[in-house]
Amino acid sequence: MGADRHHRMLEARVAHAGHRDQEFSGQVHVGLHGRGMRHSSKGGRVPPRDQAPAPRRLWQSRTQRPRWRVCDLDCPAPRRYRKHMPRHLAPLLPLCLCLAALSARAEEPLPPGMEGAEVLPGWEAPDGSRIAALKIALDPGWKTYWRSPGDAGVPPVIDFAGSDNVAKVQVIWPAPQVFDQNGLRTVGYHDEMILPLKITPTDPAKPVTLSADLDMGICHDVCVPVSLELGADLAGPGAPDAEIRAAMAAVPLRQPGLAHCTVEPIADGMRVKAAIDLPEAAGEVALFELRSTPMWVSDSEAERQGNTLLASAEFVPDSGKPFPLDQSDLRITVLSDAGAIEIDGCPAN
């Protein structure tokens, strides 16, 4: 059991300067940068975003055309995904895609399942920060994953190390959706993912050049690992963007103090049991994380006792051993038909 869990461990990371991960091998690689003329999948050039409505299938100046083929289940996945790919996913995949990047060519198709990718430039906030967003548009029926993607998901990895005049980037995560399929639970977004960013410039008087390397998985009947290089020059006051505002409005409501937890060791990690004071609502799912130490977390189990939701999950580190779990570092997100809430910290009962 422990060895199988280690094979399934997932890492949701946001890397910044000095903390770059190794490059992928064998993935679709697409480079996108700039706010000049952009390219439509139907061919031709379209004006910048502030001069014309953006077409649905859209990306910016440079792309690399992927070479892909149907292959058997032993095809080499990118190193980062090969290390953390859940072993039990293999029987569910009728086929897999072996993917390799070729030389850059403008106006070539994006990977299967992806309609477009871009940086939404956003606006300058009163405190001097910049509000922008990463937008990933998928074909209908395709999905991608949240920062804590569930037992069978693949978390996105975002690296802003190549940015200029950027001191800090905060990624803002809208409430995800839970997908249950073939007895497996994953957590993410379907058809589209918009991740708002709060960018703190090193020098507020100078423009910001944002560079985001994004490694992610997109899935339908097959799962495709994709590596994107997104970039934009962010200067001037900008203007409010309805898509960014909608994504920010979908962020779970923070509700501190609603939960108390007990923690106990298990053979290969720790089990957390939470009592959450919350009125009952249909479709309740509790998602557990450690904010500063990403690691594999089991699907939660939950039951009701009146107005208290009792939920538990298991945390398994790389060491496969019990560890000192900081309860102030726990984050519990509860999704339901009534909305989404987020609880930071879970003190002892």
Report what the structure shows.
By secondary structure, this protein is mainly beta. It has two domains: 10-249, Thiol:disulfide interchange protein DsbD, N-terminal domain (Immunoglobulin-like, Sandwich); 253-344, Immunoglobulin-like. Helices cover 6% and strands 47% of the residues. The protein has helices at residues 2-8, 79-84, 242-249; strands spanning 13-15, 28-33, 38-40, 45-46, 58-59, 64-71, 96-104, 114-124, 130-138, 143-145, 157-159, 166-171, 177-181, 184-190, 192-201, 208-219, 223-234, 253-254, 259-266, 269-277, 285-290, 296-297, 301-305, 308-316, 330-336, 339-344. The strands form six sheets. Strands 1, 2, 10, 11, 13, 14, 16 and 17 form an eight-stranded mixed β-sheet that branches. Strands 19, 20, 22, 23 and 24 form a five-stranded antiparallel β-sheet that branches. A hairpin with a 2-residue loop joins β23 and β24. This is Thiol:disulfide interchange protein DsbD N-terminal domain-containing protein.
